[in-house]
Structures are given as structure tokens and as C-alpha cells.
Amino acid sequence: MNKKIIPCAAIFAAGALALSSCGSSPSGSSSSGKIVTDGTLKIAGAVDPGNIFPLMNPSSDGKQVIAFGYDNLISLDDDGKPRPWLAESWTATTTEATFTLKPGITCNDGSELTAQTVADNFTWITDAKNNSSELGVTVPEDLKATADNATRTVTLTSATPSPFLVENIGRVFIACSAALKDPSKFAGAFGGTGLYTLTDVKPGESYTMTRRSGYSWGPEGTTSETPGLPKSVVITVVGDNTTRANLLVSGNTNIASVTGADAVRLDALKMKGLSIQLPPSELFFNQRSSRVSSDPAVKKALVQSTNTSEIIDILAGGKGSPAQSLLGGVPRTCAVDDVYKSIPAFDVNAAAKTLDDAGWNMSDGGVRSKDGQKLAITFVYRSGAEKNAAFEHQADVWKKLGVDVTLKSADSPTIIDMLFKPGSSDWDIADMNVNNSFPTVLVPYFSGDTSNNFSNIQNPTYNKNVAAAMKTVGTAGCPEWQAAERALVSDADILPLGWHHNTIYMRGFTASLSAVIDPWSFRQSE
Fold it and tell me: Using an 8 Å Cβ cutoff, are 513 and 10 in contact?
């Protein structure tokens, strides 16, 4: 199966991928509170969003732009409960969901959004030849869609139980008929029901949007006439962290994610924003039989010899903390809050003993070997100053342990291709993030035989607990989901390095945060 990626996390952070999470109350403005009518919102993003046809782009940078032009069937409140958006009501079990659309919804080309068009979205996703990023992740592979235009109802059924069926399929961006018929034409255009139209695109530079008239179906009663909504939005690609910070300080942008020393500078200026906690990195171990990292003793020793407190301090510029969970977002449904306690304890001497006991003996050249095979690993990671420093330091620790380490850094798309491309396995350790606010979405990345499970994790305890949790509805299966999460970490299938306290800084605007900053929630004031 082709790749379908949900890694990671930071809104407008280079290399981030889709984080599906829940909303928060609008916040983040340093304004006086006087509403501004028909203003302009300027956003500085770190990377170009790429293809903005919504059913093909899994990255958070892409989805942030997509969210201005496309809507979901539902939104989620602060507690993770569904609330109306395109759908005015719904019913659901673990295997079937029926949505009733609001009347009068139109696409940005003026055509009507029908129940059949919504059903066609899910039929398009489940057609494997389309290689949708949603298939097998938010949308079950066996999902069937039917529609009744007269009653505005869409019925989605799957033989595979899902405790959070409505929450997952209800938050797929819905494309209109024109976009579904020719997705290539909408790689750089909007073809949805969203609040904004895309009026100018300069790939790699900027995306300019204008608010639609007649929009009346947004969450919490949001319409085109809601006071404080910006009339124009300009997203500019600004790759340099310091430049984004300077744009905020000068007032030449309203929103940007800034990390490290530049974030400290903004905090000292008491600049406000949306605070989020993100896992900047998790380490995955390639467990295919041809790789030395498939040896349980090797991956355990590598974990035992990693001081996660030290590494997260480097990665997060002193704004890190121990990993709470493999889940991310708000409210992190069924997450544990202390998964770091399940990591094999940091102890370099214990790591050496683990390798000694498994027959990995130190040679005169300082590199261990077993049965004629050297303990040589290739560590691939997403490039960046903090990652360079952190992982070069860790490589030195592993080398002293007797491991021959080769470091390879590249931009995020290159690393993603390396990990998810079928048949590609020229790596032993990978820096990547895979997280979501619902544990069901993560299952394909931690189990199974598809390319989503890029590190070939085969954890019987995880699988047993997932199978039990899948039979429940909603949060009833939380104990099983939590046990499953701990099993991955305690067995050294994944090493969460820690959490990063991050801020999406905002000037003159308030907003709420879900999988992205919700475009319908922006309010401008002086």
C-alpha cells in the first residue's frame, strides 16, 4: 500500500505533519478589544504547503492553507465532543455513521454541495489508485458511502469497528464535485465550501485569500458577516526562524510559530499567542530482519544509552519537558500523561551489559560485532540546527558504547520519502513524529503490514490491547489504549524524546486551535 502519513505536529513548523486535535477557546491577542471590520491577516509560515487538494496532503502546513477553503462535516469542542459544521446532525455506532447536511451549503464556484458529493469524497478516498493520505488513517479502507440528496443524508459504513468513527471521518476536508473530478487542477486552487477563496498563488512565496460572501454554515454560528473576521488573508513562506520573529516584532506579520532563542526574545516582550505542547521528535527503530536494529537487545541498549532529558533540552532550546504521551493535541483522548516513565531507564553501563549479554562483543577497533556482523547503524533525521546538535551529541554517546554510527540529515519531505516509500529501508534509526489526538488514527503506524508501519513494529501486547479497545465505543476503551501506548515505549519500539513548549505568536487577532488554527475563529481587534 502507498504511503499515508500523519506524523507530527507543529503548526507552521518546518517538517511538521498533520496533527488532528481538538479546539480551544479563541485566545492569543494583545489587542484592546475593539473589533476591526474587514481587516487583513498576515501569517508567516515556515514551509510551502505543497499540493493543496485536501484529500492528498497530510502535512500540517498544507492543511493550514487547505482549511481556509474547505470545511469538515463536524468540528470538535474543547472536550473532544462533535458539534455541527457542514452536518447539522448525525447518528453513529462503531461501524456506521449517518450525517444530515445543513441546507443551502454552496461551493466557492457557486454550485450546491449535495449529499452525493460528500459520499463521493469517501468513495474517492477508498479507491486505492488515488493514493489518498486519508485512507487507512482517518478513513477505514473498507468504508462504503451512500447518499440521499432528498433528505441531505450521507451514510458511511465499515466492517471494521472504530470507537471514534464520527470524530475521524467527520473531520475529513470535503471537496466539491469539480475538485473531485480533476484534482490536478486544484493542486494550487480551492474547490471547497470554505470561508475563503484563493485569489493569488505564488508557490514557495505566498498564498492570498479573500473572504466569501454568503457563507452561513460555520461552527458556532460563524458566517461571512461575523464581526472581526479578516477580509483578506496572506500566508507568506518565511523559512528563517529569526526572520519570522523580526516580522512579529515589527508588526509586519500577525501570526508565526517561533522557537528557541527567538521565542525567548518574544516572551520577554510579553508577546502573546496560542500555547501548545508538541513532541519535536520520536526515534523509531527499523525492525526489518535485515537491519541490526531488529535485534531487541540493540534497540533496548540504544534507548538505555539515550539521556532524553539532555536531548530534549537541546531540541527545545530549554523549553522542553518529559514526554507525556504518544498522542498530541487537545484533549488527547485516552492518552497517558507520563509515558516517559515507561522508557527503559537511562544507564549507559546497563546498555553495555545488554549488548554484552546478547553477544555483541567489543572489538579492538572500538566497534561491537556479533557473528561477523558489525554493530553499524544509519541514523536519519530532519535537518535543523537544534537537531544537528542533539543528534551529533547522541551519536558520540553511541560510538563510545561500541556502535558505528552514520548520521544522515535531510529536509522533511526527503526523510518522509525514505521512510514511507515501499521497499525503502536504508536506515536503522529515524527521527520522526507520529501523533494524533485519537489513538485509533495511530494504529496503522504502529502495527500491520502496510507501508504506514514504516519501522515494521510487531508488538503483541500493543496489538492485543488495541483489539480489545476497538470493540468499545468512545472512551470506554481508554485503559486498553493506555496499556497499548506504554507497551510500545517499554519495549523500545519507539523512544519519545520529550515535549516542546511552543507558542504560535499572534498580534491583533484571537483564534482557536485544532488540527490547525481554525480560520472561522479568527477575530481581529485593535
Answer: no
